[in-house]
Design brief:
Helix content is 12%, strand content 42%. By secondary structure, it is mainly beta. The chain is flat. It starts with a helix and ends with a strand.
Amino acid sequence: MKAIFFICFIIIFKFCCSLNIKSTKESIVYQYDLDEDYYSKWSFALTGLELEFNCVNSSVVRTCSIPMDELMAKKLHGVTSSCLYYARYNSNICDVQINPKKTPTPIVEPEFRPPTKGGNVLIQGYYLVIGASSFIISPNEELVILSKLQSKETDATNLTVSYSGGCGPKTFLWLNNKNYTFNHASPSIQSLSVNDSLVLINGDNFCNVKEMVDIFMDEIKVEKQSIELVDHEIIKLNFNQQYCKSVEIKIVSGGLVSNVFKKEFKPNPIKINTVPSDIGGIIIIEGQRLSSSIKSTPLVKIGNYSCIVISSTINTIECNIKPVPKGSILKDLIVSISIDGIKNDNKLLFSFDTPFISDILITQGIIKINGNCLGTNSSTQIYIDDVLQTNITINVNEKQTILLFQPSIQIKKSKLYLKNEIKSNEVILDSSFYGKFSESYISVDGQLVNYTLYNINQVNYNKIPIIEFLNNITISGIDIKNSTEYSTRTYSFQIPNGCGRKEFFISIGDQGFRSELYYGTPKIRNCSIGINQMIVCNGDFRSYVELYMLGDIKIQFSNSEIKDDIPDKPIKFQGDYFSFPLKAEYGPSEISLQVCKELSIPLKVDISPKLESVDSSPEFNINGGTVVISGQNFVNDTTIDTNVYCFSNQKQYDCLFSNYTTILCNLDTTGPYNQECILKFNNQTNKNISISFIAPVVLGSSMISKPSLGGIISIYGKEFYDAIDMVSIGKNQCTNATFVNSTCITCIINTITNKINVNGGSGNPSESISLKQLVNVTINGKSGSNILSIYEKENEIEIEIDKQYNQTKNGSDITSVGTNSKNSAQNDNNNNDTRSKIIMGVILGIVSIILLSISLYFYRGKEYIEVYKLNKKESDKVNEYRRVHNVYYSKEATIYYDELDIRITNLTNFLNNINNNNNNNKNNNNDNNDNNNNNNNNNNNNNNNNNNNNNNDYNNNDNNNNNNNNNNNNDNNNNNNDNNDNNDNNNNNNNNNNNNSNNNNNNDNNDNNNNNNNDNNDNNNNNDNNNNNNNNNNNNNNNNNNNNNNNNNNNEE
């Protein structure tokens, strides 16, 4: 017997120690050692299923397998037996019960996810009940199989079990000591409802253990203490969503996350006041979630009428509704609120014109009723204990929110209501005991005031009155004993600082009543638009700056509260003024300060754009011009509807905002014909504008070299148009006038008729053509003229100078010679004449030098000295004249003297060069650079001091530095700039570094001039191609009437 038991033990031990068991939906595979006993067959008697193993041996193990399919898997239940092959004995033993430890591991498919509340649950898979009749869930929970395993029809792959429910992961313990962990179905939110602050969440699989449930609102975890109830299908929690918004809600239960449920927490209006239909007013809506978390403005509609929101909090909305047309529906209008696109779904109704008493106080012995739609002074009736009060005066404010009256008799606990076609609600009134402040208002800084109580009961005569505010601050009164009547006593109270209206309860002994005190509001003296488009209001606001900083003061203007929403233009509130930025939507309105919801006395302010003046007859130039609009209260948007329309070119010109008093309209319309236009200002005001154009301006001209023949002349100036009526020179008409451009016209001089007599040298009269003529240009009926040098004559300079010299020598007053130089127009035209004279002087100098060179080449010595002496004598003559006669010369005379000095200097240089055996004059004439720097500085004087400093170093390079400091008040240098429209073929080099270059230019007037315009200074470089002339001309104009001509010639002979 022991031997048999030992043998069985060995067999079972070896069988239990097989290498491996692998089960899939396609097969069951066992692996054994070669000497190990193994299953050869399984039998399921109930279903009649016989499964034979196919075993294959390798050198190491024996592999036995059974193929499997779904049909076979369904029959794997009921009583199971096996045939076990004993390898040692090489024989099968059947009807052996399958060892539970050697059963294949069940395959659960799909995943087992029972609901958290439990119940009859289906479990599916393969090999679930081979050798088993129930399931065990760790640690020791039995899961009863409800399917009848002893029935042949039972499907072993689909079994119903009874599950008690739970939360979080759980584990099946299989017979072969393997396990399977599962979790429950994920929580699912199906609906959510809100009732005040109670939120009800309905769904499935919420679990019933609070500690294993987490609720998230917009990813923010709700505190556990807010959760009132957690069950598998419902959750209750206290959650006060203050703002109207859409919230994303999810639940995490047993580690499983629910779906995301979006819930709109909608605005919930509960209570609303009423306003008169004929004047409108402020509507106050009370409720929940009446504002947005992103500070957006709610949209409110009362029926079909918009109510413009003034302010909103989570519990109130204040909006302003305008008067409604007569005949409109006034009752039972639906209140609709939309915040960020979320609308209320509850039904709150509104009716106009329904009187409502919200509060009643006794202030200064006067009954004050607060409410809405309180009627008017004439229409409202007051009933006390159902008796109409007739001998009283009623005062109702404009908004019908406050009603004041003084009762004719003492009222003790009486019923009061109003009637204004519609009866109001009823309130209880007792006015037998009341009081009055000695001041009509209290300073916001606080102050000591007297308060008189009336109708004090005898038992309270010696009691101390106490004022108690709503914030529990109490103040005891001090009896000032100013009355011998004990029923009326006056007490002093130290009222603390504050603002607005403060309700209080005053009591003395067993008597008491509710009242209020009024803190004063500031007075706005005046308002105007200041710099930077700010509305500035002045007044004494020193006591209110701190209140503004605390946010207790709001600026009310243009029917709205001013918002501080422009970063670069903030609202400023100082002790003597406050300011805020002007906006386009503002119009004429009343401005007031709301101090703790109490409005100051309003001040009317008109800031609408006002047109004061506009130049109705502007004069434009050839480039157009600007129409200037002057007025008040201009802003950027004023120009949106402001423009000028011109009929000639049918063009509309927009206008530009300059400042709050100026708008500019730039018009590029051109002449010469007048333009008729119309100004539209701010889309309402039309002004006719007649535009004219500047007359032509004559500045200069070319010259005629042979007056007897006439010729073509070019006239330079500006404001020229191709509509030339006539050009005249002197008394002669200049024919064939041709428009070249806006600064140049040409015409032909045919005959000469205007002549004058000019005395020649030594007093002998000679006849000469007048150099200067009145040049007149007429374009489109408008003329412009100037006296210009028109004709050239070779000996004219000498004649004019000799004439002046002789007149001076004979005692004549030649100061009149310089008078013409004071004429701006004449001096502007002397440049052309001067250039001609300089050219002639240069030509004479060159001819003289050539002749002297030839003469010196043959005669040398004495001849040189004689020539020098002659020129020196002439120079001394001029210097002596300048020293003795301290007079103002004409520009022609000054030029002549300067040219004379130049000729003398040229001759001197030539002689010195010859004496120094310098025979390279001819080569140096072309190689040396004449550097001419002309600096013109205007000192606003009329006197010219000419200092000519000639320093000759007898080298081959001539440096000509001309520093001309000219007074331009009366001396106008005729500079034809504007892009050199005179077209004299001058090379204009606008550089400050062009001082060392030789510029030889031949223009139409044979002027070899290089004009270097350095920093708006005209530098005239006259290159004579001579023998290196060093000419330094410093012309300084000082504030005197003396012409000092100093010639310093430092010549090394």
